[in-house]
Structures are given as C-alpha cells and as structure tokens.
Design a protein that fits this description.
The protein has four domains: about 210 residues, YVTN repeat-like/Quinoprotein amine dehydrogenase (Methylamine Dehydrogenase, Chain H), CATH 2.130.10; about 80 residues, Thrombin, subunit H (Beta Barrel), CATH 2.40.10; about 130 residues, YVTN repeat-like/Quinoprotein amine dehydrogenase (Methylamine Dehydrogenase, Chain H, 7 Propeller), CATH 2.130.10.10; about 170 residues, Methylamine Dehydrogenase, Chain H, CATH 2.130.10.10. Helix content is about 0%, strand content about 50%. A hairpin with a 4-residue loop joins strand 36 and strand 37. It is globular, with a radius of gyration of 34 Å. About 45% of the residues are buried.
Length: about 675
C-alpha cells in the first residue's frame, strides 16, 4: 500500500513538472520604462548697462526679429538732454543744470560733471534750498524734493500738467522751510506753498487764472513776488498787495532785497522798483536793453551788473548807470535762463541751441560750453557702412556721430532748423535739408560739396536713390507758394526734373528704394500723393479719411523691399479738447489696397509727455521689412509685426516726443531721436 501511494505521488510530480499546456500560455509582463524628458533650459541673457558718449556701444546678441523684440533694451544715450534751467548751490561749490532727462551736477571750479540725478522724466525747473540740503525739481505733472547730499528723492507730489515750459516755477523761502510753486492751472490755485519737511500743502492762492513765468521770495521771507500777466506782490496768507508791470517774464531781487528788477516778454525795458518792508513797490527807473522783448535777466551778486537775454543775443549793463558794458549778437540763439556765479566771476547762459555757455565777466568772453550735442533731435539717418549716424536739430545744428562711441565726427552749425539728413548709398556724403536757408551736400570729412541756396519758406526733405547717382528733394518757394519736387544728378549736379505741386507745404515724404515712386503728404493733409519720378505723373491718392473729422499724416515710409508703404497719422480736432488718436496704416504698393490699420495711442488735451501741443509720430521699417518701429508723441516706441500689424513690444524710449527712428543696416540696433535732446540706441540683451 505504501509503495502504491509513493508511485502515485511520483507520477503526479512528474506530470506537474512536464511541458506547459499550450491553450493557457504564460503572460510575461515586460518591465515599465519611464522616459524622463530632458530639462527645459531657460536662456539667460546678460543685462546691458547703457553707455554714454565716448564709451563703445556694448555688443548685442543678434538681429532684432519678431521672436526676440521682448529682449530689446537700452544700450546707449548720446547727448545730455536739452537744458531747461540752472542754479548754483548756496556755497558756490556746484552748478546744477536741469535738463529734459534729469539733473546734471558740475564742479563749479572746472565745470567737470561730478554726478547725475536720473529723475526718469523731463525736468523743467530746479531750485536749491538756501541751506544747501534740498533740490526742488518740477516736471510736467509733479514736483520732487531731492536730498542734495544723498542724491535721492525724498518725496514727489503730483500736480496738474503745466502745458508750457516756464509755467512750473519754484522758489525756496530764505529759511528753507517753504517751497513756493507756480502753475497755470486754476484748479490748483495760482500759487501754492508747501512744507519742505513733510510735503504738506500749506496754502493755495486762489482767484487768479494766470500763468507764472517766475517766482521769488522777498529777502525777509514775508512776501512773494510773481511774474506773469502782471507782476504781483503777495503776503504769505495769500493776500494780493500790489499788481503792476504787465506781461513780466523774469524777476530778480537785489540790494539785499530792497529792489525788484523785472523784465517783459513784450517790451525791451528792464524795470527797477524799491520794495518796502510792508510790500509796497515804488518805481525807480528802467533800462532799454533790446529791440523787442526780454527773455531772462540776472543781476550780479554785488549788484554792479545786469545780464539780459534778448532776441538779438546777450548783453551786459553797468548798474546803476545803465551803460552797456558788452553785447554778444546771435539772432539764432534763444537763451532760456541766465545765472550769476556766487563769486560774480561768471554768467551761465542756457539754451537748447548751445547747451550751457559760461561767460567770463573779467574780459566778457565765452570761456567754454558744456555740451557734447544739444537740440531737439528731429531727423536722423544711419550710414549704409554702419560707421556713422547723422542727426539734425530744430535749432539748426547737424552732427555726424561715430556709431560706436557717439562722439562727434563732424558738426555743422547755424543752419536754421535742420529738417532732413540722409547719407548717400556709399556712406561718403551727407545731404542736409533745412528750413528757409539751403540744401547742403557735405563729404564725410565735412567739406562742402554742393549748396542749393535761396529755397524759400518751408521744410526741405532730401533723399538719395539708385546707387546714389540721383538726389530727390522738395524745395519751397516764396512763403506758402510754389512748392516743387526736383530730381538732381549727383555726378555733375544738374537738375533732371522739376514738378510744381502748388501753393502747399510738404509735411513728409519718402522714396521707394528703386527711386521710381515718391509718396508725399502736405502740411495738415490726410491724403498720400503717389508720384512717378520718371514722368512726374500722379499715379494715386490714398485718402486716410480718419476719425474725428480730421487726419494729419506725419510720417510716410516705403518698406525696404518696396512692396508696402506705411503711414502714421494723428486724428481728431486740434481746436477742441477732444481725444486724439495715433494710427498706423500699411498699404500694398501693387494695388494700393489698405492691408491693415492699427490704433496705437489715444490722448486728450494734454497730448505729450513733454510740453507744447501735439507733435507728429514717426515710422521706420527694419532692413528685412518684417518689423515696423513707431515713435509716439508721449515718448513711447512700438515694435510691430509688419505682416499682421500686431504690436509685439512697447516701451518708454524718451521723456518727450520721439522725432525719428532708424534701424542699423545689419538690423542689430535701433536708434531713436527725441525732442528731449538725446539720441538713444536699443539692442538685444
């Protein structure tokens, strides 16, 4: 029995260890393999620090394209900004200059720049407290208190926009505890007094809807004197004590506060008044210092001399005799402000045309000028070689700048409102168009090659085409009449064609790269006129129609490939407080169909980041015609996809109106010019 069981067990064991049964195969599960994706690497772009004139422009990371415009960054600033005001510190150690980009601080001995306070906006007026602790600075919509030692903002107070330079005036009280501000906005009061320590409003002087051109405290601090429609004397409670001398422009307090000296925009006289302790003025005498009006005056610390800025230049007068000591005639120079040094040895004259001029009183000579470039930069061009950038200013200066350092290679002055600059295709010469005077052709070394004189009234636009063998320009004739468009052969300077386009003024124009088409628009016009350069035939008119009943074309540009033309226009009613709108439109050249329009900006009565009334927008194409750059009146720059019209990137490029834009020939840089007095470069970090 045991054997039987044992045999049966062995048989069962053998059966179980045999081959598997085919209809139930064994399922083998393979091991799970997890594919881990490689980590996504986020590119790290090194920040670029903007450089100034004299320092090579930093290397950028590539060509500007639609894919990388978000990396566009500020890499260089050329120019110190247009100077608006100047003040010495009470101890005489430093000269401070307010400009449209910030506050420059110079050593008063050698006039070297020792510091710069970037307030990130236009500075319209500055004042230094008598205790040397604080700087007050006004902008278009605020004023700031800045610690002079630390160069840091203590506080900022928003105020309504002063629409013209000179209306946001500042003055510290003799004890440095009160800051007086003047504004043209009646909602904020005619004059306001502020506590310097905490920025609290002490008092508003109500009831005078007027502008302020200057403001001063009396030497004892008990009275405030303001210049504007009238000269007015106030007590610090806001009571007006006296009103006299219409349309005053500038004030000075002399003889330890006993005498008020004032000038007028409308009259050539400077008046002298005694001021009693109770604020009563008494007329003494006057000196006739000019032919028309007086822009600014300054009295020497010892009260022996008067400096006056007039339409004819600057003059110095002996006091009290009123005899002329010295006069410097310069009818194109508009001086904004005059300041005497505390030691009485120098007079500082500020202007957008010359920057900061320092006059020596000992021998009445211009000792030096602090400015590497100044003026409202209203036109620019980049040489095809990439070596130079040309700039023209409203004040009549033209510059050829080294494109690597911003240093001035050539400078041309006294041209009267440079409206257009363009390099020849080979980069060896520069055409300069001006208002009222001439068209000049300058070699890159500055030599005058050709001059077309007596062009009449209006702005001249110059443009090379072909291989540089032709130059197109519009030439204004007599005032508001006989505008012509001309084509010149540059090899022998013979005129090939001339077309009379009527009693109009050309606002903006552009040539296609092949020189076959000219697009232009007249002043305040809403129509683009297309002209064939071979025959002078008008081919087409592009009517913007626009919104608000009015369109004003401010910029026209053909694409680099010649397939499209872009226009920028502002639209609305300039005579009312309505909204205005800035539009970009792109048209196809083959059939003159509108491809798209983009509304870039809407603005009300206060239309600019700077001062004054509306200024035009500008447009530029990238070398590959794939990007459009648009500069706006509020200082912003927009980069758009040229095919779709999509805004890819926008940023504040300047404190004021962007007047012109151009891409470098290799597409790696964008250059912008502005009314703020600077040229800035933009590239990829």
């Amino acid at each position: 029995m045991r054997k039987t069981v044992l045999l049966l067990s062995l048989c069962l064991l053998a059966a179980c260890s045999g081959p598997p049964i085919s209809q139930f195969p064994e399922t083998i599960v393979p091991p799970t393999v997890t594919n881990t994706p490689p980590p996504t690497l986020t590119p790290t772009y090194l920040p670029l620090t903007p450089v100034s004139v004299g320092t090579p422009v930093p290397e950028t990371s590539g060509v500007i394209t639609a894919d990388n415009v978000g990396r566009l960054t500020h890499i260089a600033t050329w120019g110190d900004g247009n100077v608006t005001s100047a003040e010495y510190t009470a101890d005489g150690k430093y000269l401070l200059a307010g400009s449209l980009i910030g506050i420059h601080i110079y050593d008063a001995t050698d006039f070297s720049q020792v510091d710069f306070i970037d307030v990130s906006r236009e500075t319209l007026d500055i004042a230094v407290s008598p205790d040397n602790k604080m700087i007050a600075a006004s902008t278009t919509n605020s004023f700031l208190l800045i610690d002079l030692a630390e160069k840091k903002k203590v506080y900022e107070i928003e105020i309504p926009i002063a629409r013209r330079i000179g209306e946001a005036e500042l003055a510290f009280s003799p004890d440095s505890q009160i800051l007086a501000t003047g504004s043209s906005d009646s909602r904020w009061g005619f004059v306001q007094l502020w506590n310097v320590n905490d920025g609290a409003l002490i008092r508003s002087f109500e009831g005078k809807d007027d502008y302020i051109s200057d403001i001063q405290f009396s030497s004892n601090g008990n009275h405030l004197i303001t210049a504007g429609t009238y000269t007015r004397i106030w007590d610090l409670s806001g009571n007006q004590l006296e009103e006299f001398w219409a349309r005053s422009s500038s004030l000075e307090i002399m003889d330890s506060g006993q005498t008020i000296v004032e000038s007028s925009f409308s009259f050539p006289d400077v008046g002298f008044w005694t001021l009693s302790d109770i604020g009563e003025p008494k007329y003494l005498n006057s000196i006739e210092v000019g032919v028309t009006g007086v822009d600014s005056i300054a009295v020497s610390p010892d009260s022996k001399f008067l400096a006056a800025a007039i339409d004819e230049g600057i003059s110095f007068w002996n006091l009290p005799s009123g005899e002329l000591a010295y006069a410097h005639n310069d009818e194109q120079l508009t001086i904004r402000e005059l300041v005497w040094s505390p030691d009485g040895n120098h007079v500082i004259a500020t202007s957008t045309a010359k920057g900061i001029e320092i006059w020596s009183v000992d021998d009445w000579v211009l000792e030096r000028t602090i400015s590497n470039m100044t003026g409202a930069m209203q036109t620019l061009d980049w040489a095809s070689t990439g070596d130079f950038v040309a700039v023209g200013t409203f004040e009549g200066n033209a510059y050829i700048l080294d494109a690597q350092t911003g240093e001035i290679h050539q400078e041309f002055n006294d041209l009267y409102n440079v409206t257009s600059v363009e390099f020849s295709p080979d980069g060896q010469s520069l055409a300069i168009g001006t208002q009222f005077t001439s068209v000049q052709i300058r070699a890159i070394d500055g030599i005058l090659v050709k001059e077309l004189e007596e062009i009449g009234f209006g702005s001249t636009i110059v443009q090379y085409f072909g291989e540089g063998e032709w130059l197109a320009l519009n030439l204004p004739g007599e005032e508001y009449s006989n505008e012509t468009i001309q084509i010149w052969e540059t090899n022998n300077w013979t005129q090939l064609y001339s077309w009379d386009i009527g009693d109009v003024l050309v606002q903006t124009a552009d040539l296609s790269n092949d020189g076959k088409l000219l697009a232009y628009s007249i002043l305040n016009g809403k129509v683009v006129h297309l002209l064939e350069t071979d025959t002078g035939e008008h081919l087409q008119e592009l009517d913007l129609k626009g919104i608000g009943g009015r369109s004003h074309i401010t910029s026209i540009a053909f694409s680099s490939d010649g397939k499209y033309v872009a226009t920028v226009s502002d639209e609305g009613n300039i005579f009312e407080e309505d909204e205005w709108h800035e539009f970009l439109r792109v048209w196809q050249v083959s059939n003159w169909e509108l491809v798209y329009e983009v509304q870039l900006f809407t603005f009300g009565a206060a239309r600019t980041r700077g001062y004054g009334f509306q200024q035009p927008g500008v447009v530029a194409w990238s070398p590959d015609s794939k990007l459009l750059a648009v500069g706006l009146p509020n200082g912003r720059i927009h980069l758009l996809d040229a095919e779709e019209g999509e805004v890819l990137h926008e940023f504040f490029g300047h404190t004021m109106w962007v007047t012109n834009l151009a891409f470098s020939p290799n597409g790696r840089l964008l250059v912008s010019g502005s009314e703020d007095g600077t040229v800035r470069l933009w590239g990829l970090k």
